[in-house]
Design brief:
Blueprint: E1 7-12, H1 19-30, E2 39-44, H2 50-56, E3 62-65, H3 83-89, E4 93-96, H4 99-103, H5 110-123, E5 126-131, H6 135-139, H7 143-157, E6 166-170, H8 184-201, H9 204-209, E7 211-214, H10 220-227, E8 234-237, H11 245-252
Helix pairs in contact: 5-7, 7-8, 10-11
Length: about 260
């Protein structure tokens, strides 16, 4: 955490929710408002639930979609959402490059993710850009090699001004939904290396202002210790974002 950057906490609901459970979640999130000072909060429901959430969630809480396509305008892209449709509907954010889309459900390449990031930003959306390494890549000492490979096409496409609307989420794949969590020291070291790489590849000003958040089995039990690290600026939360535990995580991130 740094007093120079407003902490950011996002709840990625992934492919979860019924009409009843989403209504209850909205009540839980609304109970946090007014939000703690120095914390920005965003939720990412399924596409089917975005309309309900936009209508019923307190406006302090931002709303994200979990993906958008690499074309600025709608067209023959069955099953996709283009950024113009997302913006017109009223969502402000989009999550891009999540490991489940890079490695499981879509096999998205770093180049495709970079295209999607740039087009979303140009359309006026804010972007949560996810990067992360597999367990065997961590154990093989290739963490930064993998992260740089994911980041390089993005840096090549973005103008310096674009970065003000980007939150970078470091999510070690081996810690997502597994119950495993990078220790605060391991997470901080990777965040520090990412910030240093952005400074050398984009600019020192971009790196200093960029919010880098951690994701990977974040819970109320570990969030306070994680957020105490100087280069961890918040969280992208998975499973715990579907419960009242999310409120505790948000409160731990207040400046």
């Amino acid at each position: 955490m740094s007093s120079a950057r407003v902490n950011w906490v996002g709840g990625n609901w992934k492919c979860n929710g019924t009409r009843e459970s989403v209504a209850k979640l909205v009540e839980i999130y609304n109970s946090m408002c007014p939000l703690p000072e120095g914390v920005e909060v965003v939720c990412a429901p399924t596409a089917l639930h975005v309309g309900f959430v936009l209508e019923h969630m307190q406006k302090e809480v931002g709303v994200a979609v979990q993906n958008s396509w690499s074309s600025p305008k709608g067209g023959a892209y069955t099953g996709e959402l283009t950024p113009d449709i997302v913006k017109d509907f009223g969502a402000q954010w989009v999550i891009l490059g999540h490991s489940e889309r890079r490695n499981t459900v879509a096999r998205e390449s770093p180049e495709l993710v970079a295209d999607k990031v740039k087009i979303a930003l140009d359309t006026g959306l804010k972007v949560v850009l996810c990067v992360g390494e597999l367990k065997e890549e961590r154990e093989g000492g290739k963490t930064m090699e993998v992260l740089i490979g994911q980041m390089t096409p993005v840096v090549a496409k973005l103008a310096p001004s674009d970065w003000a609307n980007v939150v970078l989420a470091y999510e070690p794949v081996w810690a997502i939904g597994t119950g495993l969590t990078a220790t605060p020291e391991v997470a901080q070291e990777t965040h520090r290396q990412l910030r240093e790489w952005v400074a050398s590849s984009a600019s020192a000003d971009v790196a200093s202002a960029l919010r880098i958040v951690y994701g990977g089995s974040v819970k109320a039990a570990n969030s306070a210790e994680l957020i105490s690290q100087p280069d961890i600026d918040g969280f992208l939360v998975g499973g715990a974002s579907l419960t009242e535990e999310f409120c505790t995580i948000v409160r731990s991130a207040k400046l």
